[in-house]
Amino acid sequence: MNDDELMDQLLRKTMVAPPPQLSSGFDAKVMAAMRPRRLSSSGRVVIGVYAIAALVLTVWTMREAGLAVIVASALVTAAVSFGLSSYARALAYRSDTVTR
Amino acid sequence: MPPAPAYSDACREADDVSLVERCRTSKDDAAFAELVRRHRNKVFRLAVSILGQGFVHEAEDVAQDVMVRVYHALGSFRGDSTFGSWVYRIAFNQALNLKARMRYRAPHVSDEALAGLPSADRRADDELQAAERRRAVMECTAELPEVYQSALRLHYWLGASIAEIAEMLDAPENTVKSYLHRARQLLRVMLTERGFHE
Q1: Which of A96, A100, A98 lies closest to A35, judged by CA?
Q2: Can you list the alpha helix ranges (DSSP code H) found in chain A?
Q3: pLDDT value at residue A38
Q4: Of B63, B68, B153, the CB nearest to A34
Q5: Does the distance separating the beta carbons of B113 and A22 come in below 8 Å?
Q6: pLDDT at B22 over 70
Q7: Smallest Cβ distance to A97: which of B41, B45, B65?
Q8: In chain A, count of helices (H) and strands (E)?
Q9: Among B11, B112, B156, which would you mutate to test the A interface (most chain A Cβ atoms within 10 Å of its Cβ)?
Q10: What are the pLDDT digits (tens) for B164-195?
Q11: Do B138 and A7 touch (CB under 8 A)?
């Protein structure tokens, strides 16, 4: 028996642990992770009420400011909101795929 | 007249390319579920062959992550290679990335346990020597180049054929045979350096 055959036998004798199997819920976890997460109905109501209140308060606070300031504020707010929501979505995706 | 086959049966009969097309054009969940069913085990085995025997849970996470990434990246699949090769390449890279990140983490299960229990009819000295040899083989395997480690674990531990390994590593069968031969040669040299002889 040559060296290669001896190593082959040794490896067969060494790697004898039973092969692992995927957990039974694997498919369901994948299909759930694919779908975007949506807020519950109560969550949507809370966010909606907050958005309306914030808008009313902002308009009332800025009623004396000039148009340029209002436009600049709106642009900055939109950019920050977009960045934060993208980050939150990325976090949700990571927690979906990393946790079991 | 025989009844029309159920939609899931139609998915089972379709080839990978038409299933990918269905996913792309109509976001067909059943078609993607069928793709997952076909490739999940190979993706998982490939991931566990790279991460090692003590990281089975992490390999399942990688397999899950790969499937989600594949779903979101279906638009970029050009069809230059088979769908399976494309998925396995993503899995290989994903597992390597995770392995690099967790280089200093200890496995959940010791190599001793993974190598199996010694047979009961051996004498104590023989058992001790065999256990030491098994530990040395595990440690030396972990020092081999990644593709050799993967080929060895797929073949000897996970029972994959040369053709299956070739598909998963996207390499010709002769190349896989050469990986295994070279890996055995390197292992023999490493074991000899540690004082183990046949």
Answers
A1: A96
A2: 3-14, 26-34, 41-61, 67-98
A3: 72
A4: B68
A5: no
A6: yes
A7: B65
A8: 4, 0
A9: B156
A10: 999 999 999 999 999 999 999 999 999 998 88
A11: no
Structural domain boundaries, residue B151: 118-193
Q: Is A36 part of the contact surface with chain B (CB cutoff 8 Å)?
A: no
CATH value at residue B152: 1.10.10.10
- In tens, the pLDDT along A47-94 reads 899 989 988 888 888 888 888 888 888 899 889 988 988 887 776 655
Residue A80 in tokens: 């920050």
Question: Are residues B124 and B178 part of one domain?
Answer: yes
Contacts of B60 (CB under 8 A, 6+ apart): A22, A23, A26, A100, B44, B47
pTM for the model: 0.72
Instruction: From chain B, pick out residues whose CB is under 8 angstroms from the CB of A37.
Output: none
Same domain, B97 and B123: no
